[in-house]
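Quick start: read one record
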Amino acid sequence: MGTIPKFHCTYSELLTVSGTLLNNAKDNKTIIVQKRPKRADPYFSNLETRIHNAIEKYFGLDSAKDLRAATISLYSIMNPAKTDLSEFNTDIAVDYKNDKVKLGEILNTLGFKKYYTSATHDNQQDMISLLGQFNKNMTPQLEAEIVDKGMSPDLITRIKGYSGTLMNADLVQETAKGKRPEITDEAVTEFNGIYDEIIGICEEGQNIFKDNEVKKNLFVFSKILAALRGSNHGGNGGGQTPPPPTA
């Protein structure tokens, strides 16, 4: 009997989610290292190298480039997009506080009523839908009206710029996820080792940020996996129950 994977997702999903969780940890490295000194340099850079080497060794150079590009592109876009969309949502509520009907109409037109909550909770497909509707329905007339009310034109420009880039990154990711290498016992052993490291980071991150729901969710393996798959299903730590691993 071959080596049994400890995780319940595909191998490419494991490595992509692991890369994302590692990036989240690096973004919060200062406080993590304060609480857990063993995560001090060069821990994160070594683990990043280990993940990249596993992708390259077991998926091939082309797949490694694709998966790396997908992870970097998607989450370098998703995080600032969430920040800018949140700022827009707050500012427009202030600007139209005396005209709730018009506020509701604008939010509905731009996709906020349907997609905002799930998109800003890492639902990748709903983020794409929200940005697409924002782009399509932000006419010059509507933009001029909103800017006249006080909205930053630079903020609108930034939000409009995310859509095409995110869609391209999503396409790269889906292509990369579809590649099916030969997975050996040696590969599964290495994947299990990476999974153990990542789940350790998840457990620590959830504990460190237990009083900050947004930060805490950055360290929930199953939530990142669900976002990767474009669903809203979440959970705690590594306890997700999707289908058994495949390539």
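The radius of gyration is 20 Å.
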